[in-house]
Amino acid sequence: MSSPDTSHEARAVIPRDFSADYPMAVSGDGVRIRDREGREYIDADSGAISVISVGHGVDEVVEAIAEQARRLAFVHNGQFENEPAEELARALADFAPGGLNRSTFVSGGSEGVETALKLARQYQVLRGRPEKEIVISRERSYHGATLIALGLSGVPSRQEPYRPYFSPLTPKVHAPYAYRTIAGDDAGSPDELEAAILAAGPDRVAAFIAEPIGAAAAPGITPGPDYYREVRAICDRHDVLFIADEVVTGMGRTGRNFGIEHWDVEPDVIVTAKGLAGGYVPLGAVIAQDEIVELFEAEGASFVHGLTYESHPVACAAGVAVLAIIVRDRLVENAARQGDRLFSGLARLAEEHPVMGDIRGKGLLAGIEFVADLETKRPFDPGIGFAARIRAAAQEHGVMIYQGAAPYGGAGDQILISPPLTVTGADVDEIVAGLDLALGDVRAQLAKELP
């Protein structure tokens, strides 16, 4: 039997971008990926923002998946409970802060956000507050590709075709953005959130959702030290649930178990995914405070929600294996240590490349915003495609990085670097060196092209 034709013209898979010609990946090992042509890449974005947590090709995870598939591949959670789901939920209760002890499992971040919103809504209904239906989110955020999650997001380029389907019950406030905040402006502050709650009517607001640190839509944007403590107090004051979207920032990515722990704050609900099963299978989790789930138990209520692959035994077995490796191999601590090395390397690059306007984030989640002028912070003309050029040039040098969404009506260039939690100091140095070469290439191109 002949091999299938996987050329651009003949491919049967619908690609992410029909204008792109992606290399064919064939193998991965540790922090590296190899394509069909024999080229090797360091996976410095962990498979598009923080998916590959414990590395490619880890036999321990593969064996856990195979063993569970042989024993019991699938049962529906409306008919049976299963041991891997319960084991993973107990492990996450130990891993998550405080009273976040109750979990349900889905197939990814978008499903997780939708599940969390339904959980928050039904919780409000059960406690006799059915008028609480509004969910406040932030501009420059990304919560997922499904319609409710996409409507909560702030990525115009991804949202525009689907705006007719968005709910009017999802007002937005600005994300905290120190690099461009105007002194005295409440935009992005907790005060703006409180004003939005008061404007909507506290009796109508069910929840506020936020990424602890920005990812796809706001690479590395990190609030100040008091931001989430004030957010927590505002939510408590107005009887609003706080949902932390830790799809990217969870599972040790930022040098803490969950990103919100940098602010010593407990949300009411955490959504996590990506690194939870390390890319080996699709898996996400919604982790809730005990008191939320206890209300359902007290009322004998069914959570009016359901997904075919919820709490999938094989996916949960993968999650158990990945989390065990994260804890056993102290990968959260490694993320903090190697993150310090990464940020030091990026700071050195900024001295050589004055297009690096802002470097931000925590642990192994580093965002860079590029500017045409350091003093004025003027972004590059969108037609230049600066970040796209950097991403392509880095790939040519064997380093995979993530290009963030353009933030200002199509203008603005930013990238995200988020290698696997297993990354070594030598790997980090290689990433920085590859980015250095990419910056040099692109700046030389522009010197020839621009007047």
Explain what this protein looks like in three dimensions.
This protein is α/β, with parallel strands linked by helices and 451 residues long. The chain is 37% helix and 15% strand. The protein is built from 13 helices and 14 strands. The protein has a 7-stranded mixed β-sheet with strand order 4-10-9-8-7-5-6, sandwiched between helices. A hairpin with a 4-residue loop joins β2 (32-35) and β3. α2 runs antiparallel to α10 and α3 runs parallel beside α10. The longest helix is centred in the C-terminal third of the chain and has 25 residues, at 425-449. The protein is globular, with a radius of gyration of 22 Å. The model is unreliable at 1-6 (pLDDT under 50).
Helix run count: 13
Biggest sheet features: 7 strands, mixed
State the low-pLDDT regions, or none.
1-6
Measured on Cα atoms, how large is the radius of gyration? 22 Å
- Derived structural class: alpha/beta
Considering the chains and any ligands shown, give keywords for the structure.
451 residues; alpha/beta; seven-stranded mixed sheet; four-stranded antiparallel sheet; 13 helices; 37% helix; globular; disordered N terminus
